[in-house]
Amino acid sequence: MSAPHPPPPSDAAPSQCYILRLPDELLSDIVSTVASWPDNIDGTEFLSLYADRWTLTLVCRRFHVLATPLLYSRLVLTLRWTINASLSQSSDYLSITQERVEQLQSEHGGRGVMRLHRTLECNPALRGLCRELNLDLADSHWRHLTFLSRAASFVTWLTEVRSLRVHDGFGRTRTSPVMQLIGTAARYMSALEKLTYTAHYHPGIRGELPPESEMQKVVARFPRLRELHLVGCVKYFGVDYELLKTVRGQSPLTTISLNDSIDGVAALTSLLAWPSQLEQFTCLGRTRPGWSPLKFRNIWSALVPHLQSLKSVRVGSVENPSPYRTIRGKLGGIDFSLFSALTFLGVSVWSTGTDGGEAGLLAPRLEEFEWSFDGEDGRVLLLNYFGADEEGFLRRFAEAALEREVPLRRISVVFSPQPVVGLISFGLESLNPEYPWDCMDRLAGELKEVGVELTYNEPCVSREKFEEALGSARQLLRRPVLP
């Protein structure tokens, strides 16, 4: 991308280019499909994001008019730069230091940001086309003052942005240049509806997000903010009561999504006190080792203030990993019967167990229930994790829904195990398990008769592989233990 753009070539004659015979409505759909953005742009270098999309603007005048709004609709500011093939194959490649890599990123990746900055500076009309801004502010990036200065210019120019995503750069202190940059965005992006914080994840180390009190100050300054997405750990340093008075129940937030993001129960409770009417809540499971302060019961308790407005709740494996079926009574004290607007509930099996309490998961208007055998916390999913106990849990759940006249239409089971049969958590009596998809097929037939659809993953392990894994487990069990 360069500025200003070279004049686009003239349209080709219709007799020479059939696509140009299409009306703008169809041609716009084609261009939009070709220029669609990937769902995940993390780790993507600047030039690879824009090169093909920019080429579309050079095809002809019609393509230029249709593709330009798409080109500028989503802007990603990053210094990421992929070392080219010739350099990676050279003898000097292995001797490149981290400092040199950062220098190369600044020189090469920064050129794209510099040119984009110049384009928007020279063509103010293009600024209003941007609807999503992504700031990749990794530590090695925001230390470059020029990059940070240009990022500040972008947040003051792009006043029509609806979605702002900040990736990394928060550091381990309560304030940082990045938080100052977000404060600047709050002054200019009054139309912002979605805010995402993403902290970079290193194996075994949780990414640090700004403290909960710092985020309160920022969120309170976006008058139209509807969605808040946090990926990383939110620290909690106590309550700022004066600030809490101004934000408790005042935020227009309707959607909050957390992923490995809460340092404790107090932070979760304070965070969920912001919205006036929360409609969608997601708390995905832990992606790191270590102790977790949360339980499913804590999350349910924090959601109670929104029991009349919540429509969708999804909770992953938030609790500490433990041998399956060893901790009982996980659903004790949990009761969704007063959540009058709830139509979807998704829960990790590790947070519910199978020993009862399933009726407490039923809301009066619940239509879909998702039961997930997730592996977000790194556990290995075994073939015999779905058996008679799990089948019984879902059967009792459906029977309770029928008895209470809950309009339950669908139960979804997310189950994609490894071709392994476990030993430690099950014992001798469990080494004659049934093929798990036979259990689900049988249960699906029963539930269909009462008007409930059971959906589940296609078999990822064949019956032959299952029998092979079961035989290997039995052989290990019969192996004598050495003194």
Please render the helix and strand layout as text.
Blueprint lengths: L23 H11 L11 H11 L4 H13 E4 L7 H4 L9 H25 L9 E5 L2 H4 L2 H13 L5 E5 L9 H12 L5 E5 L13 H8 L7 E5 L9 H7 L7 E5 L5 H7 L8 E5 L11 H8 L8 E4 L28 E5 H4 L15 E5 L15 H16 L6 E5 L21 H13 L4 E4 L6 H16 L5
Parallel strand pairs: 1-2, 2-3, 3-4, 4-5, 5-6, 6-7, 7-8, 8-9, 9-10, 10-11, 11-12
Helix pairs in contact: 1-3, 2-3, 5-7, 7-8, 14-15
Protein name: F-box domain-containing protein
Organism: Staphylotrichum tortipilum
Count of DSSP helices? 16
**Amino-to-carboxy terminus distance:** 70 Å
CATH architecture label of the domain at 286-483: Alpha-Beta Horseshoe
Helix content: 25-40%
What structural category arises from helix and sheet content? Answer: alpha/beta
Radius of gyration using CA atoms only: 27 Å
CATH class of the domain at 286-483: Alpha Beta
Q: Main β-sheet, in a few words?
A: 12 strands, parallel
Strand order of the largest sheet: 1-2-3-4-5-6-7-8-9-10-11-12
Mean pLDDT: 77
Shape, please?
A: globular
Order of helices and strands: HHHEHHEHHEHEHEHEHEHEEHEHEHEH
**How many individual β-strands?**
12
Low-confidence stretches: 82-98, 424-429
CATH topology of the domain at 286-483: Leucine-rich repeat, LRR (right-handed beta-alpha superhelix)
Strand content: 5-15%
Protein name: F-box domain-containing protein
